[in-house]
Amino acid sequence: MRICTVDAQLNVTALETTYPQGFTVLGYDRVRLFEGYRRTRVRVARALLTLASIFRAAGPALAAAGLRQGGREAAEVLLACDPDAIDLRGLRWGAALRAYLHARYPDWAYLDGEIRSLPAPRWRRYDPNAQVTIVLPTYNGMSYLGQSIESCLAQSHAAFELIVVDDGSREDIGSLVSAYRDSRIRYLRHERNLGLATALNTGFRASTGAYLTWTSDDNFYTERALEEMLRFLQTYPGIDLVYTDQYVIQEHEGGAGPPQLRRARPPTWLAVDNIVSACFLYRRKIFEAIGGYDPQAHLVEDYDYWLRAARRFTMQRLFRPLYYYRYHRRALSSQYSRTEVLEQVRAVKQLHGVGMQRGRR
Predict the structure, then answer these.
(1) Beta-strand runs (E) in the chain
(2) Per-chain mean pLDDT for the chain
(3) How far apart are CA 19 and CA 197, in angstroms?
(4) Separation CA 122–CA 133 (nearest Å)
(5) Residues 353 and 215 in one domain
(6) Are residues 343 and 290 in the same domain?
(7) Higher pLDDT pick, 111 / 164
(8) Tens of pLDDT along 329-346?
């Protein structure tokens, strides 16, 4: 069971318990109640809620005012923590927060007294037979491709197909893929290099999964990545796409440094930057509604896709590091200057009519 504690300093700490006792702190899940939000309205909300923790008599009124200003953002952060229960015992204004959250997430349990026992979260949904498609495009990616494939095959959620799309590689990708004697793997090949977007489109046109994602040949999943994301989407049917925290590996000539956690930013940041991480899962209806990736959006194929998806579908971050993203000298992102990438980002923003909108963050 996952319990998220909200304290008077507006910190949120996630705990895992082996029901009914035995708490262990998950350090990566300590966040601020308004993690990632900067807009003026949220700063006002933070100040009001801080004052509500100090002034007992005025606390309820201050808390109500604070939640009117920033309740939506606070609820988004707590949803990203994916709780089974919210511990409000350290809050003088816990009743106000409980009422606000219960109207939106009535299945969550709330702790406001001594912890004795908690009901098992039977409201969660997870179908181990739900089919997921992973598309893995590669172009001369032999160096790390094996690790990427193996991380897919090691998933705790076993009902998936892995479609490897060889985008005209000079390397013998087919032999490497065929060495994995697993019926869930399919191998498709372009006779010449057509680019990332076209390779993705080839893969998704051949897909059968009800849930879709893609990964890169130089990155890899943690073992429970698909299961965690799928469980989240099935538990919250109003969410169409989930994206997660990730670990970043910086490789150089002398080796690699320790992985660094990169926290997922709020969905409202999409108008500013590509905030959907490299670890994500979305419902097939997105693909059916907006089609494939745009070959003209070179270097920003994914950003263009998420902007199109956000117009019609709901995105949500999840505070779980489920992926390892590798920076190295042969990576596609290393082959182009920052100026070239920014030019493409600006072009996509102009196409979709978005920009640096401070009020949306």
Answers:
(1) 2-6, 11-17, 23-25, 31-32, 85-87, 109-111, 132-138, 160-167, 185-190, 211-214, 220-221, 241-252, 255-256, 260-262, 280-283, 315-327
(2) 90
(3) 46
(4) 27
(5) yes
(6) yes
(7) 164
(8) 665 555 667 788 788 888
Q: Does a structural domain hold residue 27?
A: yes
Nearest one of 299, 297, 287 to 352, comparing CA atoms: 297
Residues 207 and 356 reside in one and the same domain: yes
Same structural domain, 258 and 139: yes
Same domain, 9 and 106: yes
- Lowest average pLDDT, out of 162-176, 207-221, 321-335, goes to 321-335
| Domain-embedded: residue 118 | no
Query: Residue 243: pLDDT band by 50, 70, 90 thresholds?
Result: very high
Confidence (pLDDT) at 117? 63
Structure token digits, residue 42:
């949220």
* Within-domain flag for 47: yes
* Residues facing 212 on adjacent strands: 133, 282
317 and 229 housed in the same domain:
yes
Q: Are residues 84 and 32 in the same domain?
A: yes
pLDDT reported for residue 153: 98
**What is the number of domains present in the chain?**
2
Q: Is residue 126 a part of any domain in this protein?
A: no
Percentage above 70 pLDDT, the chain? 89
Q: Note the pTM of the prediction, 2 decimals.
A: 0.92
Question: What residues contact 353, with CB distance under 8 A and at least 6 apart?
Answer: none
Q: Which of 8-12, 124-128, 257-261 shows the lowest per-residue confidence on average (mean pLDDT)?
A: 257-261
- Interatomic CA distance for residues 313 and 276, integer angstroms: 14
Query: Domain of 161: which CATH number?
Result: 3.90.550.10
Both tokens of 347, joined, read 């072009």
Domain of 30 in residue numbering reads as: 2-111
Residue-level pLDDT at 359:
39
CA atoms within 13 A on the CB side of 250: 5
User: Who contacts 145 (Cβ-Cβ below 8 Å, separation ≥6)?
Assistant: 138, 173, 176, 217, 218
In angstroms, rounded to a whole number, what is the distance separating the alpha carbons of residues 246 and 269? 17
Q: Are residues 150 and 79 in the same domain?
A: no
- Please say whether the beta carbons of 285 and 314 come within 8 A: no
- Domain boundary among the residues 111, 144, 170 is at 111
Segment 3-32, tens digit of pLDDT: 899 999 999 998 876 544 455 544 446 899
